[in-house]
Design goal:
The protein is α/β, with parallel strands linked by helices and about 400 residues long. Helices cover about 25% and strands about 30% of the residues. Bound molecules: flavin-adenine dinucleotide (FAD). The site of flavin-adenine dinucleotide (FAD) has 34 residues, from α1, α8 and β20.
């Protein structure tokens, strides 16, 4: 294989930046250009946590300052890629210029999903994906303002926690009675969801059916609205937090293989031999043709960039541990590893009567996944069990006096 001399990375988010960083670390001497309309790459998780509540200043959001780009000879172009020619790999930018490339990396992430209901396209509705979104949201997180949040997933729950702590009134609306089961298992998800009411957030289990504006306020109709036996929530602002749509139109236009994400092999290569896809847009197609889950988490975005860097240089692919994510709310730090989606037996370890760690076991006893509240060490031990195929003793797993690190040996 030949190593490219001219690489263009489309999207300077976490995955794109991680790949550029890894390429230089591994000794890649060719030209690297990152194109992103947002400019200097920055971290997104703080946007719903410590940046949103003001603990983290704006200048701490970027992964590095501009000097890193100069020192590492990485060119950052603040622009949007509009097309990539699949034959020549010429990259067209919104400004009208073009960039030559002999290999291309797609790292375009996603944008917040909107609700396809009446009023779902109102310009005043808020979303949270970018720093600009967070800046706009911060303005309504103040006493006297009422924020309605549609979707009680990770971002909706984090913003509810931040908003109520800032003194705003919050109504959190989701049609699912216990959001987060797929990521954390039922016991932990239920415990966390109950914390909303305990902290003064109104929760509504309801389908949002329409948005409207009335007298300078937003009206959220749920389950049909008052005329149809439903109800309405009147708020100063509405955050729609119902997940993301991966930005895959460039890949589609190039004719790459897709299936709710850009399909990649274990080296992050797409169906085009000179095009990689990494981060939130990429979905693994195993060698046997079966499809993996498209991860939308911080660590998997970093890992995919590192893998693509190794692959591009023809080096051994790094071996990554089981997928991991975290989320924070109401002063609690939640981590999850592996998968909690599959059918299995849920073993729960309690601390002072409160669920602290939930482990999903397969029928043969091996660990599929786990979630823990303020239990980083436990998650590390369980990750080791997953990676090494260790079958733990069920009773010891549930016993809070047993050190999980010992079970993972
Ligand atoms: C508010 C928030 C909180 C989060 N919290 C957590 C958390 O607690 N834990 C966790 O594990 N994960 C969390 N995540 C998820 C994590 O941040 C993402 O998985 C990660 O950012 C994905 O990286 P990415 O590079 O694939 O995409 P992104 O970070 O979205 O970067 C994609 C970049 O591509 C650019 N782009 C798009 N289209 C084009 C184009 N045509 N031309 C040029 N550039 C383009 C975009 O401007 C963007 O900068 C959070 C995400 C958000 C938004």
């Amino acid at each position: 294989m030949s190593i490219p001399e001219n690489l263009v990375i489309v999207g300077g988010g976490l995955a794109g930046f991680s790949m550029a960083q890894e390429l230089r670390k591994r000794g890649f001497g060719g030209a690297i250009t990152i194109v992103d309309p947002e400019g200097l790459p920055y971290d997104r998780p703080p946007l719903s946590k410590e940046y949103l509540d003001g603990r983290q200043p704006a200048d701490k959001l970027p992964f590095s300052d501009e000097s890193w780009f100069t020192e590492n000879n990485v060119t950052l172009v603040t622009d949007t890629v509009t097309a990539i020619d699949p034959d020549t790999l010429e990259v067209s930018l919104a400004s009208g210029t073009t960039l030559p490339a002999d290999e291309v990396v797609l790292a375009t992430g996603g944008h917040a999903r909107s609700l396809p209901i009446p009023g779902g396209d109102l310009p005043g509705l808020r979303y949270l994906r970018t720093k600009a979104d967070a800046d706009a949201l911060r303005e309504v997180l103040v006493p006297g303002k009422h924020l309605a949040i549609i979707g009680a997933g990770l971002i909706g729950a984090e913003v509810a926690s931040t908003a109520v702590h800032a003194g705003a009134e919050v109504t959190l609306i989701d049609p699912v009675p216990i959001p987060g089961v797929a990521g954390m298992g039922e016991t932990i998800a239920l415990h966390l969801h109950k914390l909303h009411e305990a902290h003064g957030v109104h929760t509504l289990v309801a389908q949002t059916t329409a948005f409207a504006e009335r007298d300078g306020k937003f009206v959220v109709e749920v389950d049909g609205g008052p005329d149809e036996g439903g109800t309405e929530v009147v708020a100063d602002a509405v955050l729609v937090a119902i997940g993301i749509i991966p930005d895959i139109h460039l890949a589609r236009d190039m004719g790459l293989d897709m299936d709710r994400g850009v399909l990649v092999d274990e080296s992050q290569r797409t169906s085009h031999p000179k095009v990689y896809a990494i981060g939130d847009i990429a979905r693994l197609r195993h060698a046997d043709g079966t499809l993996g889950v498209r991860h939308e988490h911080w660590e998997s975005a970093t890992h995919s960039g590192q893998t693509a860097a190794a692959a591009l240089l023809g080096q051994d692919l790094p071996v990554h541990p089981a997928p991991w994510m975290w989320t924070d709310r109401y002063g609690l730090h939640v981590e999850a590893v592996g998968t909690m989606r599959e059918e299995g037996e849920l073993v729960v370890r309690y601390r002072d009567g409160v669920p602290a760690i939930a482990v999903m076991l397969a029928g043969d006893g091996h660990v599929l996944g786990a979630a823990a509240i303020d239990g980083g060490n436990a998650i590390r031990a369980i990750r080791r069990m997953i990676d090494r195929g260790i079958i733990p003793d069920r009773e010891k797993l549930a016993d809070p006096t047993v050190d999980l690190k010992k079970l993972a040996r």
